[in-house]
Amino acid sequence: MSELLSPPPDGAGLPLTQTQKDLIGGSIGGITQVLVGQPFDIVKVRVQTAPPGTYSSPLDCATKLLKADGPLGFYKGTLTPLLGIGACVSIQFGALEFAKRFFAQRAKGRDLNLGEFWLSGAFAGVANTVVANPVEHIRIRLQTQPDTVPRMYNGPLDCAIKLYKNGGGLKGVFKAQVPTMLRDGVGYGCYFLTYEALVQRHLKATNLSRDQISPLWAVTYGAVAGYALWFSSVLPF
């Protein structure tokens, strides 16, 4: 019995390739991202798409949403991004690491420069849109449909089927694919460029290795990189 309860020896378990680790880590991060960000996202979408005068501010929108639908109202339309975000972020980080390894093989031992980090991030952003664009399209349709009976869409699958039938096939599901590719390519290029620039500056100033950076600094740099993504892509688009 003690042998069954003892921890596995070092190296035991299923071996994972670096790509598999990137995909699994991206999935976990993406699901967490949805659960934390969805309430803010639905308020943003409501404020942006509601007729003038419906909400006086984002706080007013959140208050009315809470009164009308309760706490779960903030997670309306969450199933689609929750199912899709794992795939989205997995593709994103898998593509990012693939591109970084591609440039590293040609760098002949030197560190990647910021331009190569930008290109890696841009490649990851464009790859991400293959799943992210239809997921985002369906999510917005569900979040903004009127509260009428019968409902326009009875869930993500019904929404996807109707977009396919009424929008000319895949063209209806992947509506605005090119602008989304441009948005995410520029945005994630700036995101990873900013993050790496801050990390490299930190490493030079402290003489630490990358794995010695504290979680607090990593989160701080990630937050700053998030603002870079927002101002470079989300606001213009």
Automatic annotation (TrEMBL):
It is a multi-pass membrane protein. Keywords: Membrane, Mitochondrion, Repeat, Transmembrane, Transmembrane helix, Transport. It is found in: Mitochondrion membrane. Its main location: mitochondrion. One of its GO terms (molecular function) is L-ornithine transmembrane transporter activity. One of its GO terms (biological process) is mitochondrial L-ornithine transmembrane transport. SUPFAM superfamilies: Mitochondrial carrier. InterPro entries: MCP_dom_sf (IPR023395), MCP_transmembrane (IPR018108), Mitochondrial_Carrier (IPR050567). GO terms for cellular component: mitochondrial membrane. Solcar repeats lie at residues 17-102, 112-201. The chain crosses the membrane at residues 79-99, 216-235. Belongs to the mitochondrial carrier (TC 2.A.29) family. This is Solute carrier family 25 (Mitochondrial carnitine/acylcarnitine transporter), member 20/29. It comes from Cryptococcus bacillisporus CA1280.
